[in-house]
Amino acid sequence: MSDTVKYQLDEEHLPKHWYNINADLPVPLDPVLHPGTQQPITADELAVIFPRAVIEQEMSTEREIAIPEPVREVYRQWRPSPLFRARRLEKALNTPAKIYYKYEGVSPAGSHKPNTAIPQAFYNKIEGVKRIATETGAGQWGSSLALAGSFFGLEIVVYMVKVSFNQKPYRRAFMETFGAQCIASPSTTTASGRAILAEHPDSTGSLGIAISEAVEVAAQRDDTKYALGSVLNHVLLHQTVTGIEAMEQMAMAGAHPDMIIGCTGGGSNFAGLAFPYLGKQLREGGNIEFIAVEPSACPTLTKGLFAYDFGDTAHLTPLCKMFTLGSSFVPPGFHAGGLRYHGMAPQVSHLAKLGYIAPRSYNQLECFAAGLQFAKAEGIIPAPEANHAVRAAIEEAEKCRESGEAKTILFMLSGHGNFDMQAYTDYLGGKLKDLVYAESEVAMALAGLPSVG
Ligand SMILES: *Cc1c(COP(=O)(O)O)cnc(C)c1O
């Protein structure tokens, strides 16, 4: 067998449907609540910030939802994305394990995020929306929505978490190239931003704060809606295009995964790969292990509480039942900016709570070490977020070396790290440290959880 083993589907195999795991949940999700009344939120209430088609998908229990043709047309530029067998990495690890990875770095923004940015922009466009406000952590989501906005002729305003705004000037340039406006958050352009700055003038920002700013802007103007790049059901739905392709590619390889691994910030790339498999397992049985990997410095699934919480710091968003570290928690400024979120997708949280998903956490240094090992063997520099999945895959392959078991590992390489070279420069220069989250701060944030009757 040659060392480059790639499973590439023809264009005709581009999926025609997304997969909705709500159809197969053994216990339905808890309802999303209105932040004021604490009653289940209605479609009309959500319509202030989201287009109707997106709200329908958010609430749907249909198993398959058709991908609109104009969305497939754009997907076709880089989809189906490749699935690789990591032969050189297997050899370097001297493991009997078979390691496969689905690679989403082939999108124009370099990550899985355009899979949902494109349909969200499309649905806004056909409903007459002119402008979308959003937040971005490391910049991948802002880049993806900027790209989608330019395809569909929408104005895009991006609130970028300040620590990343300063660490990643090229991400800002990327967004501006596509005509988007990029503002460091917290900013003075919104009441939520000004309130944070009054209390913490040196705030490095957080996704929770940036979401407040974007939601505030969307709620104020009729021609403006809000878009979220992770967490919500419709986002996870759009990402299942990756898992549906991967199932076909693994079948081409004659392989069946024993475990499926993804990094989790809000849960979307992990769910995209895992849910089509997990849904099948819920319907038909099976014993694939689903492993969600998060940073030890923002350990939502492993150290958080499963409770109703706000999605943002200013408490403008609806309440979701999810694993959370508390909406006022500001994680330390580690380099995997896309994983610095206090909450976790309700669907991922629910399935973890029920025991179908096994979460674990790693520190950033061991993840960068794994990323370098992967890059040297496979020739792709992973995004710092994706390094968490790489770390778990390598650890599992090393366990196989000890036990002699030839397990099949499938993981999601959610993006490349070509815009994250400052992080690699810092790592190579010995400047990165393992950051510890402040337990007292989490305790304080959790004490402030809304009491839902
Ligand atoms: C945004 C991002 C993540 C984290 O978000 P999820 O919704 O958990 O997928 C992970 N990897 C990359 C490359 C990202 O851009």
Automatic annotation (TrEMBL):
GO annotations of cellular component type: cytoplasm
Cofactor needs: pyridoxal 5'-phosphate
Residue numbers bearing the N6-(pyridoxal phosphate)lysine modification: 113
Protein's pathway: Amino-acid biosynthesis; L-tryptophan biosynthesis; L-tryptophan from chorismate: step 5/5
UniProt KW Amino-acid biosynthesis keyword: yes
Keyword Ribonucleoprotein: no
InterPro entries recorded: Trp_synth_b-like, Trp_synth_b_CS, Trp_synth_beta/beta-like, TrpB-like_PALP, TrpB-like_PALP_sf
Gene3D superfamilies for the chain: 3.40.50.1100
EC number assigned by the record: 4.2.1.20
Keywords from the UniProt entry: Amino-acid biosynthesis, Aromatic amino acid biosynthesis, Lyase, Pyridoxal phosphate, Tryptophan biosynthesis
Reaction catalyzed: (1S,2R)-1-C-(indol-3-yl)glycerol 3-phosphate + L-serine = D-glyceraldehyde 3-phosphate + L-tryptophan + H2O
Pfam family, one: PALP
Molecular function GO terms recorded: L-serine hydro-lyase (adding indole, L-tryptophan-forming) activity; pyridoxal phosphate binding; tryptophan synthase activity
Domain Tryptophan synthase beta chain-like PALP: 77-415
NCBIfam families recorded: PRK12391.1, trpB_rel
Function in brief: The beta subunit is responsible for the synthesis of L-tryptophan from indole and L-serine.
Family, per entry: Belongs to the TrpB family.
HAMAP family hit by this protein: Trp_synth_beta (MF_00133)
Assembly mode: Tetramer of two alpha and two beta chains.
Protein name in UniProt: Tryptophan synthase beta chain
Organism name: Candidatus Thiodictyon syntrophicum
Lineage: Bacteria, Pseudomonadati, Pseudomonadota, Gammaproteobacteria, Chromatiales
